[in-house]
């Protein structure tokens, strides 16, 4: 999917934020992007500020073309026009319905939706819900409060399907609740579906495209805008790990077919959210060097070494040091 498809539905907030993110990741100023795309600086500024509601197809095509050298530009699928909600938790928690953002102001309510979205179509027990919402000490009324939050979420997500039959998105399952969704409605399911599809493909090109689409489901760290306190969802560690694996696999495929720049862009996006993952940054160094960005590659090493020392009291490991040596030697495979 390209950046142009994210604007097919009236989701200007997503389009503007996505455009700005990919422009910055490509290392382009608004002026430089304007020169490469033929779109005025003023228009780009308005787009990024969401002051232009629906950019024309021609403008979207030009921006796509200017950013295409940086690899696939993906984002969450556009919401269904029939009012079916789209839920995104691979990044800040978002809910879209009928092309419009659904406001969920209460933090406990948002935490509950995030927990259910990370365990789609699976019963999440009441005790676990209480532990997530009140990690320190639950109030005596916690069970009633959970019921209240569920009721509010049901109202927020309610949509009409088919012959006017109301759909219940959150089911009561024994002593807990389950969010019912499919891959067209929840980014977690779309991401895992695409990973499974990529694993089943033998053609390197198709596999790379599918992995790129999977990586495009991510907008940032899982539920980045939520504060879960000391509680850590198991999925919050499992899903990022699968994202890293997908990014490394995509980078290998891209570099083997001459797509060093695409590999570097994909790796940089994930590395931004994984600041201490040494293997990821080592591979990013090699991809940058292979695409002719030797100075940027060595900067990655210096930044990583500083973070490891300051934050963890560690020195770079063998993989990072090996990548640095390869870049300094200008090895032929680069």
Automatic annotation (TrEMBL):
Name the UniProt record assigns to this protein: Winged helix-turn-helix domain-containing protein
Q: Which residues bind DNA?
A: 77-181
- Where does the OmpR/PhoB-type domain lie? 77-181
Q: Could you confirm whether the keyword DNA-binding appears in this record? A: yes
Q: Which PANTHER family does the record match to this protein?
A: TRANSCRIPTIONAL REGULATOR REDD, TRANSCRIPTIONAL REGULATOR REDD-RELATED
A Pfam family it matches: BTAD
UniProt family annotation: Belongs to the AfsR/DnrI/RedD regulatory family.
Instruction: Look up and give the organism this protein is from.
Output: Streptomyces roseirectus
The protein's superkingdom reads Bacteria
Single GO BP term: regulation of DNA-templated transcription
GO MF annotations, alphabetized: DNA binding
All copies of the HTH cro/C1-type domain together span: 19-49
Point out the coiled-coil segments of this chain: none
Keywords attached to this Swiss-Prot or TrEMBL record, sorted alphabetically, are: DNA-binding, Transcription, Transcription regulation, Two-component regulatory system
């Amino acid at each position: 999917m390209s950046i142009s498809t994210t604007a097919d539905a009236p989701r200007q907030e997503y389009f503007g934020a996505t455009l700005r993110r990919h422009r910055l990741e490509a290392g382009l100023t608004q002026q430089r992007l304007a020169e490469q795309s033929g779109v005025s600086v003023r228009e780009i500024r308005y787009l990024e500020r969401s002051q232009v509601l629906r950019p024309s197809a021609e403008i979207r095509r030009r921006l796509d073309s200017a950013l295409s050298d940086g690899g696939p530009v993906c984002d969450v699928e556009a919401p269904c026009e029939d009012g079916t909600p789209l839920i995104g938790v691979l990044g800040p928690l978002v809910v879209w319905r009928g092309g419009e953002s659904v406001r969920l102001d209460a933090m406990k309510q948002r935490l509950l939706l995030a927990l259910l979205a990370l365990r789609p179509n699976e019963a999440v027990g009441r005790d676990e819900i209480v532990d997530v919402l009140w990690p320190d000490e639950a109030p005596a009324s916690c069970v009633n409060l959970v019921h209240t939050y569920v009721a509010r979420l049901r109202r927020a997500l309610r949509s009409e399907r088919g012959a006017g039959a109301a759909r219940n998105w959150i089911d009561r399952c024994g002593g807990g609740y389950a969010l019912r969704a499919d891959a067209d409605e929840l980014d977690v399911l779309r991401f895992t579906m695409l990973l499974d599809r990529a694993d089943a493909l033998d053609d390197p090109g198709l596999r790379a495209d599918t992995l790129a689409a999977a990586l495009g489901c991510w907008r940032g760290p899982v539920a980045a805008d939520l504060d879960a306190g000391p509680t850590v969802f198991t999925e919050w560690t499992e899903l990022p790990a699968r994202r890293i694996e997908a990014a490394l696999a995509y980078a290998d495929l891209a570099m083997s077919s001459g797509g060093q720049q695409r590999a570097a862009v994909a790796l940089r996006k994930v590395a931004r959210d994984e600041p201490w993952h040494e293997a990821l940054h080592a591979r990013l160094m090699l991809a940058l060097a292979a695409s002719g960005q030797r100075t940027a590659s060595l900067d990655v090493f210096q930044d990583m070494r500083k973070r490891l020392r300051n934050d963890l009291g560690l020195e770079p490991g063998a993989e990072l040091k090996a990548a640095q040596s390869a870049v300094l030697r200008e090895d032929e495979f680069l």
